[in-house]
Amino acid sequence: MSLKSLDKDKLKDTAMIDLAIIILKDEKKAMDFHGLYDQIAEIKQLTPEQKDDLFVQFYTDLNLDGRFLTLGSNMWGLKRWYPVEQIDEEITAEPKKRKPKRKRLRKRKLLTTIWIWKKLYPVKIPRKIPFWMTNLMTKKIMMISMMM
User: Fold this and answer.
1) Whole-model pTM?
2) Taking residues 113-142, what's their average pLDDT?
3) What residue stretches are annotated with the HTH HARE-type domain (predicted)?
4) Of 5, 87, 99, 106, which residue is most buried, by most CB within 10 angstroms?
5) CATH topology of domain 8-86
6) pLDDT (tens digit, 9 = 90+) per residue, 5-27?
7) DSSP 127
8) Can you tell me the distance from the alpha carbon of 31 to that of 12, in angstroms, rounded to the nearest whole number?
9) Where are the domains of the chain?
10) Backbone angles phi, psi at 78, to 5 degrees
11) Residues 23 and 39 sit within 8 Å (Cβ to Cβ)
């Protein structure tokens, strides 16, 4: 099926994605997105307002449709033209899982709290302090610092 074989009424009723496939088949090469969209808008006789409204929708449809392939630099072609080995779609590796920084901050906060507590109250503090106790210590230190 080519553009010449279809009548104008049928072309106007055809979906933009289907028109893109027909145009790319006729051209037999990858095309720039804007050039492709301008040809479709010309075929469908879209007004400038309609053209602006449908621009984003067409780009979204092109991305979601599995028959198209972006070649970079806003060039689009049909996926079946390219063998699987030639397709250079970006595949991002999963990021390495890191330990959350929260534990480091919690430990630093604990050590700071204990240091201040020792300066304020020269009492022997047990080596392992429950977390709830450090929160109480921090609150008390804050109250004392506000009073000063």
Assistant:
1) 0.55
2) 62
3) 14-81
4) 106
5) Arc Repressor Mutant, subunit A (1.10.10)
6) 677 778 788 899 999 999 999 99
7) S
8) 21
9) 8-86, 101-147
10) -85, 135
11) yes
Asked if 79 and 70 touch (Cβ cutoff 8 Å), the reply is: no
Per residue in 123-136, pLDDT (tens digit) is: 555 556 555 566 66
For tokens 């959350």, the residue is 100
Q: Amino acid letter at 138?
A: T
Instruction: State how far the Cα of 139 lies from the Cα of 136, in Å rounded to an integer.
Output: 5
Gap between the terminal Cα atoms of the chain = 86
Give the C-alpha separation, 31 to 37, whole Å. 10
| DSSP designation for 58 | H
List beta partners, residue 32: 75
Q: Which long-range contacts (CB under 8 A, 24 or more apart) does 108-116 make?
A: 109/134, 109/138, 110/134, 113/137, 113/138, 113/141, 116/141
Tokens of 58: 């067409």
Closest to 19 in 3D by CA, of 41, 52, 51, 49? 41
